[in-house]
Design a protein that fits this description.
This is Branched-chain-amino-acid transaminase bat2. Keywords: Aminotransferase, Transferase. The relative contact order is 0.14. By secondary structure, the chain is of the alpha+beta class. The chain has 8 helices and 19 strands.
Length: 405
């Protein structure tokens, strides 16, 4: 018996790998076998609410990932019974056996998305269908069960209705949502999982970086590699993150805030810390070009990344490219005065401008806004940031903004 539905065809798998993440409509009729449920149903959701609500922190005191709301969403799965009924219950510890396979073999994937409060007080999600599709893609790589993304979104909406007081108001503030899928089988041995748990927790937060929307410095790591061809760099699995902690700490000791990950002898650009990377320059043909590394299997297909590419292409003011770029090319562009901006992008930070990059014993300064010496972002990064926030907070109409009724 298969643990769940696989992505239906090689073409669909390639569609996901190339970043065209869209909502997966998995039919319950296409069961994993027998009477097992191929997905859970939001209509069967059960609620058991806390009798001791926690006090809210002033939003100005929020630190990313340190505070959690009153409730969580949880759904169990087994090969025998398939998906169970989703439950909203008080936030609290999980009871797992010490032999649980998630502890020993990194059977875990997760997502990150945010809920925003608009000026009218309504709660909004930003492109949640892409997060659910990407989570299913990550689950398929780990041979963990998949689910219907639309049903998951409806369950998350109900969690937001229950914990709506935890969604702070104001630009820069949001409720961060962390869907997580883990294998829970109580046996040792590397094999497919026979039981799993999907859960969602929520954390009210302000800016990801304590400094807020300010330019950061990067350390180009020429020794360690974040991901490799044929690996899982394009999936949001926990095993991608723990090995990055030591290089990150070493970069911080040298006075840099984030790692610039590269690969190969030419130091091809990959990602920035946990963000996708964008370079804005005048290329060697003299064109103004916004370029980001391609989704070749080593790069995470970020929701913010996809949004930036679509926005920039709609503006039709610069050439937009997804192609390989090396740090040597960036250094050359800097020396020749062609480098205009560098910035990272992701759900947690939205957009993070870069002010300098250390590479092969030298700092390369990155222009911000020549017209405004006090600016912490270049004109393009600032425009992208403001446009995305306007959509996320409902100030700018967009199909990407999903209202929680």
């Amino acid at each position: 018996m298969l643990p769940a539905l696989r992505l239906a065809t090689p073409a669909l798998r390639r569609h996901h790998a190339l970043g065209g993440l869209r909502l997966l409509h998995l039919s319950a009729a296409r069961s994993a076998g027998g009477g097992a449920h191929a997905t859970f149903q939001a209509a069967t959701l059960q609620k058991s609410l806390t009798t001791s609500p926690k006090p809210l922190k002033p939003k100005e005191d929020l630190v990313f990932g340190h505070t959690f709301s009153d409730h969580m969403l949880a759904v169990e799965w087994t090969t025998r019974d398939g998906w169970g009924r989703p439950q909203i219950k008080p936030y609290g510890p999980l009871q797992l056996d010490p032999s649980c396979s998630v502890f020993h073999y990194a059977f875990e994937c997760f997502e990150g998305l945010k809920a925003y409060r608009d000026a009218a007080g309504k709660i909004r999600l930003f492109r949640p269908e892409m997060n659910m599709a990407r989570m299913n893609d990550s689950a398929s790589r780990l041979y963990l069960p998949q689910f219907d993304g639309a049903e998951a979104i409806e369950c998350i909406k109900e969690l937001l209705r229950v914990d709506q007081r935890w969604v702070p108001d104001g630009r820069g503030y949001s409720l961060y949502l962390r869907p997580t899928l883990i294998a829970t089988e109580n046996t040792l041995g590397v094999h497919r999982a026979h039981s799993a748990l999907l859960y969602v927790i929520a954390s009210p937060c302000g800016p990801y970086f304590p400094t807020g929307f300010k330019a950061i410095s990067l350390y180009c790591d020429e020794t360690n590699v974040r991901a490799w061809p044929g690996g899982v760099g394009n999936r949001k699995v926990g095993a991608n993150y723990a090995p990055s902690i030591k290089p990150q700490a070493e970069a911080e000791r040298k006075g840099y805030q984030q790692i610039l990950w590269t690969i190969g002898e030419d130091h091809e650009l990959m990602e920035v810390g946990t963000m996708n990377l964008f370079v804005y320059w005048r290329n060697e043909a003299g064109e103004r070009e916004l370029v980001t590394p391609p989704l070749d299997g080593t790069i995470l297909p970020g929701v913010t990344r996809d949004s930036i590419l679509e926005l920039a292409r709609s503006w039709d003011e610069v050439k937009v490219s997804e192609r390989k770029v090396s740090m040597k090319q960036v250094a050359k562009a800097s020396d020749e005065g062609r480098l205009l901006e560098i910035f990272g992008a992701g759900t947690a930070c939205v957009v993070t401008p870069v002010r300098r990059v250390f590479y092969q014993g030298r700092d390369y300064d990155v222009p911000l806004d020549p017209a405004n010496p006090e600016s912490q972002a270049g004109p393009l990064a600032a425009r992208v940031y403001e446009t995305l926030q306007a959509i996320q907070y409902g100030d700018k109409p967009s199909k990407w903004s999903v209202v929680v009724d």
